[in-house]
Write a structure and sequence with these properties.
By secondary structure, this protein is an alpha/beta fold. The chain is built from eight helices and 17 strands. It has a seven-stranded mixed sheet with strand order 5-2-1-6-7-9-10. Strands 12, 13, 14, 15, 16 and 17 form a six-stranded antiparallel sheet that branches. α1 packs parallel to α2, α1 packs parallel to α6 and α5 runs antiparallel to α7.
Length: 307
């Protein structure tokens, strides 16, 4: 049984922590400080913190790790496990554990190093991605890989869907690697630099739909940005969030963003190439509606513009 310091924050990390608690000795947990959440903006504990406290594990929530070296050295951990923690680990921390630090990363490295690998894979139209268990080093997601699991991506998968798949697969792969490290059987293979790509952090601004793109590009982004930050457009001067859609191949001479077809159940909007059919929409502060439900309360006509 390894002595483990666990560092993570969201639900993605909590799934890994749960399995680590059941199979190894978690000495303490590091997670992000409580943040305002919900309409009341009250401070909320991360999913990792909630699980750790429920399991009787000590929790640390520093703004950075610079002042944590003495604590970590005193714990003398065998290994530090990092899963979507949200803070960079300085070299001094990486050097503390006997077996170093390992990370659960949501891509098939070296593709999609960086903060948003799940979303960028969907946005780029990748037909497969996965999860890697990686030895951490100073470079950004450049360390050797112990294990990887590939998962196919279809043309309906949202970032939320894929997140859940990878969280489960990553947790299982992590335990296999920890057990192999404990038995002295783990082998980490250096990454190739060929095919390396960078998954930049998402921003709210990126979620604004540019109808001058192709229907395929826009539909991918809508799925990639669901559940956050959610793609949006403007209709009659007000924001409208688009949660789900489909891309169709259709010849038209309409302006990008122009409504080209309205039926009882669908709204079709022109793109530079092809068109987008809305499936799920939401007004700010409102509930999520199907296109049919939206049309029951809003008269949308051919020739109107989304921008």
């Amino acid at each position: 049984m390894l002595n483990v310091v666990f560092m993570g924050t969201p639900e993605f990390a909590a799934q890994s922590l749960k399995l680590v608690i059941n199979s190894h000795n978690v000495q303490c947990v590091y997670t992000q400080p409580d943040r305002p959440a919900g309409r009341g903006r009250k401070l909320a504990a991360s999913e990792v913190k909630q699980l750790a406290l429920a399991s009787g594990i000590n929790v640390h929530q520093p703004e950075n790790l610079k002042n944590e070296l003495s604590i970590l050295n005193s714990l003398n951990p065998d290994i530090i496990v990092v899963v979507a923690y949200g803070l960079l680990l300085p070299q001094a921390v990486l050097d503390i554990p006997h077996f170093g630090c390992i990370n659960v990363h949501g891509s098939l490295l070296p593709r999609w190093r960086g903060a948003a690998p799940i979303q960028r894979a969907i946005e780029a139209g990748d037909d497969r991605s996965g999860v890697c268990i990686m030895q951490m080093e100073a470079g950004l997601d450049t360390g050797p890989v112990y294990s990887s699991r590939e998962i196919l991506l279809d043309q309906t998968t949202t970032a939320g869907d894929f997140h859940n798949q990878l969280a489960s697969a990553g947790a299982e792969a992590l335990i296999e690697v920890l057990n192999a490290i404990e038995l002295g059987r783990a082998v980490a293979i250096p990454q190739s630099e060929t095919g390396a790509t960078y998954a930049a952090k998402l921003t709210r601004r990126e979620g604004r739909i540019d109808w001058r793109g192709s229907a395929i590009e826009i539909e991918r982004k809508i799925r990639a940005f669901n559940p956050w930050p959610i793609c949006s457009t403007s209709y009659k001067g007000k924001d409208l969030r688009i949660l789900l859609s489909s891309a169709i191949t259709i010849d038209h001479s309409a302006e990008p963003g122009e409504v080209i077809q309205v039926t009882r159940n669908a709204i079709t909007v022109a793109c530079r190439e092809g068109a987008i059919v809305f499936a799920s929409l939401q007004k700010p502060g409102g509930k999520v509606l199907t296109a049919k439900e939206f049309l029951n309360g809003h008269k949308v006509t051919i020739g109107e513009l989304f921008s």
